[in-house]
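Fold this sequence, please.
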Amino acid sequence: MTPGDYLFLYTDGVTEALNRSQEFFSDERLLAELGNRTQMDVEGITREIRGKISEYTGSAPQSDDIAMMLIRFNGPGEQLQQ
């Protein structure tokens, strides 16, 4: 990883969130939504993605867990002393 890179971890409930027509949120939609937010902080990105999932699913019942974790690499830090 290089400074500024992100690592987004998530459960399958994110991409498999269903709308009222029983269509998945999808990997493609997730990647597009993440790509639109590269200049935001990790909390903002995560909040926005959760909002997009809620918007997509609307009033459809949640069918699986939805968990996300976003990590931003800021660069090498201080060496740890042992």
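The chain has a mean pLDDT of 91. Residues 3 and 76 are 8 Å apart (CA to CA).
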